[in-house]
Amino acid sequence: MNFSTLETGTATERRLMVDQPRTISFLGEDLRIYATPRLVDDIEQTCLDYLLTFLDEGENTVGAAVDIRHVGATLLGMSVSIVATVTRIEGRSVTFNVEVRDDVELVATAAHTRVVVNVAKLRSRVQAKAEAAAAGEVEDGVLSPSQFAASR
């Protein structure tokens, strides 16, 4: 992880078009608007792409927290701007404040935290967890504390 050039206050921007897969369908075709889960995904991807430029080989980031206020309806076909500003760097954790606007208004504000991980170590932990689950080494659907510790 090479965060020597990453500083609080630095920002990244992503512009995108709200296409049909990013919209809700349950209110009918005339109310195809930006779906909150897709908005969260776009925020996470914006922050991930930015942090990738600061990582060493074998590292990546995973989302650790999202706090979002989705306050405006963005119609199918409108463009949005996602601006993510680094507000805190603490060890391997980076927090962003995010503002999303469409062509007319503020759409959302969010705080999003990502944590830098070693991909090989994460893969090993996840594999150990999957093996424990496959072997039936779970009680009531939960790994025992010793099994969980061994997977870390």
UniProtKB/TrEMBL annotation:
Which residues hold CoA?
63
List each copy of the Fluoroacetyl-CoA-specific thioesterase-like domain by range: 18-119
Q: Which residues are named in the active-site annotation? A: 36, 44, 70
Q: Which residues are involved in binding substrate?
A: 63, 114
Alphabetized InterPro entries for the sequence: FlK, FlK-like_dom, HotDog_dom_sf
Write down what this protein is called. LysR family transcriptional regulator
